[in-house]
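Quick one: structure for this chain?
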Amino acid sequence: MAVHQSHQPLPVSDLQRVLWCHRGSTGHVNQVWPRLYLGDAFTARDKAALREMGITHVLNAASGKFQINTGPEYYRDLNIDYYGIEAFDDQHFDLSAYFYPAAHFIKAGLQSSKDM
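Got it. Here's what it folds into:
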C-alpha cells in the first residue's frame, strides 16, 4: 500500500490574485488557478503559445490518433512532460478511472520547478 502525502491546497490569496488580475480569455486557453491553464486543441498544438505561457506539463484528455494526436514526441523540443488519456466525448465513457493519475500528474506539474 502506498502512503500519500496529504493535499495542501494553495492559499485563497493565490486564487484571488488570479481572479483580480484576470488577463481575459484568448478564446482558446484560460488560467484557472495559479500556474494551471485549461486549453483546447488549438492551444495544445500551438507551440509558440505554450512556450510564451511557460507551460511545462500537458495533460491531454483527448489523446489518440483520431483525436488530439500530440504526445510526448510532439513536445520534445519544448521539454514538456506529457500525460495522455484516450477519452471519448461520450456519456458512457467512464473517465473516473483517470482522475487519480491525472490529479497526480497535475500536482507534480504544479510542484515542479522545471523551466522551459
